[in-house]
């Protein structure tokens, strides 16, 4: 996610993503979407994403730069185009379900889940080409956390050191 993104450490308090360190706790949620297995991530589909709040521990932190950033809802959430999201969307077979998908597959009219459990409709998507400082964090035991008020996946590629 783009530097300056607020990450929830509980239901109401946030810290900036660039201040997180290994061992810090972030606000998360339990459920079947908590996986780093890419095959399971691509096949995950559920009518709901009900789960209890929980804490997850930051286990790795990566900083990089990217000029392939997507801004959702006029800057509410900004991340690299390949960042995995928990998104409610219609599939090619017309089924509507919560899925784990890269941000670039999200469309206007899809939904994210906010920290209060509300669906947030995607109303705008903008591709940004300037260079941004971006941060990736790995969290365990849960692989999701709330950033920018939205439930997102930790999405750290396995081939990172």
Give keywords.
mainly beta, Endonuclease - Pi-scei, Chain A, domain 1, 161 residues, three-stranded antiparallel sheet, 4% helix, 1 helix
Task: Tell me what you see in this structure.
The chain has 161 residues and is mainly beta. The protein has a single domain (6-153), classed as Hedgehog/Intein (Hint) domain (Endonuclease - Pi-scei, Chain A, domain 1, Beta Complex). The chain contains 1 helix and 15 strands, in the order βββαββββββββββββ. The strands form 6 sheets. The protein has a 3-stranded antiparallel β-sheet with strand order 3-5-13, with no helix packed on it. The chain has a 3-stranded antiparallel β-sheet with strand order 4-9-8. The two termini are 18 Å apart. The model has no long low-confidence stretch (mean pLDDT 92).
């Amino acid at each position: 996610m783009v530097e300056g993104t607020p990450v929830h450490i509980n239901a109401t308090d946030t810290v900036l993503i660039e201040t997180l360190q290994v061992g810090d706790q972030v606000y998360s949620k339990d459920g079947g979407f908590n996986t780093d297995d890419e095959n399971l991530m691509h096949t995950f589909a559920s009518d709901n994403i009900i789960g209890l709040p929980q804490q997850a521990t930051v286990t790795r932190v990566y900083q990089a730069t990217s000029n392939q950033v997507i801004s959702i809802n006029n800057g509410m959430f900004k991340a690299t185009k390949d960042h995995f999201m928990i998104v409610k969307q219609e599939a090619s077979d017309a089924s509507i379900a919560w899925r784990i998908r890269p941000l670039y597959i999200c469309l206007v009219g899809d939904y994210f889940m906010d920290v209060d459990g509300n669906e947030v409709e995607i109303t705008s998507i903008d591709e940004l080409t300037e260079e941004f400082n971006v941060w990736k964090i790995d969290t365990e035991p849960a692989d999701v956390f709330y950033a920018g008020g939205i439930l997102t996946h930790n999405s750290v590629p396995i081939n990172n050191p």
